[in-house]
Amino acid sequence: MNDNTVMSVKNVSVKYKGANDSAETLALENVNLDVNDGDFVCILGPSGCGKSTLLNVMGGLLEATEGSVEMLGEAVRGVDPKRAIVFQQPTLYPWMDVYSNIAFGPNVRGIKSEETDRRTKEYIELVGLEDFAHSKPYELSGGMRQRAALARALVNDPVLILLDEPFGALDAFTRTTMQDLIRKVWKSTKCSAVMITHDVDEALSLATRVITMSALPGTIIKEFDVNFTNYAEDSEEDFRYTKEYLDLRREVLHLIKQK
Ligand SMILES: Nc1ncnc2c1ncn2[C@@H]1O[C@H](COP(=O)(O)OP(=O)(O)O)[C@@H](O)[C@H]1O
Ligand SMILES: [Mg+2]
Q1: 29 three-state secondary structure
Q2: DSSP character string of 191-214
Q3: How many whole angstroms from 62 Cα to the centroid of ligand 1?
Q4: 20 vs 8, which has greater pLDDT?
């Protein structure tokens, strides 16, 4: 841990008790991870290896069986607006329009209404939903709903944004647009991000650090420092054809496929 550390996961193991007499599941085993200021960490691993478990522990939604999680020097317990969480299924209130969904967090926290209004509009614009501010979630496409969920998380000015396969349910074209959006958000808000994905190209094109996990019980096998995200904005993704990219892609795929 150093002065730049936003979150520190130390020796975390998570064991799920089996229902009735069924066996326990050791979902995570001795995971250590420091997230530093400005990092974009992507976590890749086989299905069922404990990725969501790890993200839920980092978000304060689930308590580790062993080990500890600290954020800015304080133990992580329960939800906190400093930690935004975005899931694969957008979490929006179906009876509220986009504007009210986004303004909900600041409203319940008692932020002044002019300030809430200003921030809500700012984030609606950042995610490109200006024309849909008064639409209800059922009137939006999947990608638009995820944009609204993202704005709803960001309006609280989080230090860390945690994303669990946020684009997993979207079609390929929408996914690419959303990847560009999340990169823009990460750069403009200067928050740190941890994103779970099973898409190696998504991880390599967004991350500053790619972390690979083993099959159950999930452990961290290897970490890679990458920098393609800083070329991705205006290069028309040409970096995907470089030897450096292809070699790294092959190595990562090999790691996450091995049992
Ligand atoms: N609430 C739970 N109770 C019991 N077992 C669980 C629970 N949640 C997840 N698991 C098990 O823990 C393992 C890891 O799950 P998860 O973290 O969701 O994996 P991933 O997100 O990598 O697909 C899986 O074997 C899963 O079946
Ligand atoms: Mg999962």
Answers
A1: strand
A2: -EEEEE-S-HHHHHHH-SEEEEEP
A3: 12
A4: 8
Give pLDDT, residue 234: 64
Give the residue from 196, 182, 198, 228 showing the smallest Cα distance to 59.
196
Which domains, and CATH codes, for the chain? 5-82+158-257 (3.40.50.300)
CA of 196, closest atom in ligand 1: 21
Residue 178 confidence (pLDDT) above 50 = yes
Q: Across the chain, which distance is largest between two alpha carbons, in Å? A: 56
CA of 46 to the centre of ligand 2 (A): 10
Ligand positioned closest to the Cα atom of 62: 1
pLDDT value for 236: 65
- Secondary structure (DSSP) of 61-125: SS--SEEEEEETTEE--S--TTEEEE-SS----TTS-HHHHHHHHHHHTT--HHHHHHHHHHHHH
Ligand lying nearest the CA atom of residue 215: 1
Residue type, 104: F
- What mean pLDDT is predicted for residues 225-253? 85
How much distance in Å is there from the Cα of 48 to the middle of ligand 1?
A: 6
Helix (H) or strand (E) holding 8: strand 5-16
What whole-number distance in Å separates Cα of residue 70 and Cα of residue 160? 12
Residue 22 DSSP code: S
- 215-228: pLDDT as tens digits: 989 999 999 999 88
**Protein residues within 5 Å, CB atom, of ion ligand 2:** 52
Q: Please, are residues 136 and 101 in contact by the beta-carbon 8 Å criterion? A: no
